[in-house]
Amino acid sequence: MQNTFLNRAIHGDCIDLMKTMPSHSVDLVLTDPPYVANYVSRDQRSIANDDHDGWIEPAFTEIYRLLKPDRFCLSFYGWPQADRFLWRWKKIGFRPVSHFAFIKDYSSKAGFTQGHHEVAYLLAKGQPEPPPEPIRDVLHWDYTGNPLHPNQKPLSIILSLITAFSRPGDIVLDPFAGSGTTAVAALERGRQFILMEKVARYWQAANDRIERRKL
After folding, report:
1. What is the pTM of this model?
2. What's the order of all strands across the beta sheet hosting 138-140?
3. Which of 83, 150, 188, 193 has the fewest C-beta atoms under 10 angstroms from its C-beta?
4. In this predicted model, what pLDDT tens digit does every residue of 55-83 receive, in sequence order?
5. Are 190 and 6 within 8 A, CB to CB?
6. How many CB atoms lie within 10 A of CB 193?
7. Angle at CA of residue 127, ends 123 and 132, nearest 5°
8. SS3 of 64, please?
């Protein structure tokens, strides 16, 4: 089944799709799942499954199963819900080994403070070797304008993470693919990829980007 997924964006629920794949079949997971924040953008776009956390454990259980031993999972998350993510990751078997802050030149939210950063955890399965040249855990965020997805991540950030935590030819899985930035970065860096996206319009945007990149 994996060969039918390789270097494609697949439309469907990632939990169901991942269950059809063999264990220990991917080299890196890099993903941006819902933040459990009930987020609605200024133009009224929303995120599927962002209103509950029932998907976290089954999704990351499959992610853990699919990862080869001694490999990494990089996951963005919503910091107000950090406890919901962390205890499930640890229960599944992941070990947090580093934490990233991505600094924005603009404020994306104002409340008790102005929000000028995004965050992600570096999770280890087993005992992976550190990169030969570790990257900084604070990186600059280039604003995308979010034309294809309300939480579209900068290509520059994803390129840095894929380069640091995978090798040429590796298979990178993104089960919450959004607009497909992970695939574009994988192609730029000579990696293979498997994307999964539940929302049809974002899946189509990812497919379009992949096809343009292959031309």
Report:
1. 0.93
2. 8-11, 192-197, 171-174, 26-31, 67-76, 117-125, 95-103, 138-140
3. 83
4. 999 999 999 999 999 999 999 999 999 99
5. no
6. 27
7. 85
8. helix
